[in-house]
Amino acid sequence: xxxxxxxxxxxxxxxxxxxxxxxxxxxxxxxxxxxxxxxxxxxxxxxxxxxxxxxxxxxxxxxxxxxxxxxxxxxxxxxxxxxxxxxxxxxxxxxxxxxxxxxxxxxxxxxxxxxxxxxxxxxxxxxxxxxxxxxxxxxxxxxx
Length: 144
Prior knowledge:
Blueprint: H1 3-14, E1 25-28, E2 31-39, E3 42-49, E4 53-59, E5 63-78, E6 81-85, E7 91-94, E8 100-117, E9 130-131, E10 141-142
Antiparallel strand pairs: 1-2, 2-3, 3-8, 4-8, 4-9, 4-10, 5-6, 5-7, 5-8
């Protein structure tokens, strides 16, 4: 068990709330996030995604994370594997080199991102983003 997994287990057991005033909220298209906890290098963000949205494959080159299912209709993908999330607490490890994304159904979705930032101060994973079009900030879009 590495230090990020230990932190995730601690946070899930105790759920301390420490929302920062600076860089505490993130709005990108159909995706909204709030920082629940920040104590560098660790951070926990809660994301909600509007119904019938998609987050295209991307990486966060400076972030190691666990994505934790909360509720909704979510189909995560990570390194070409698809994970249908159905139970509260289902987790997926997303390494800094892992291409990942998601599809959100009629109920939309809500998940936690439990993070360890590898360089610098944590902000939002939406600002530590690279996709195949080389966009540097992330968003969720309506499904076509």
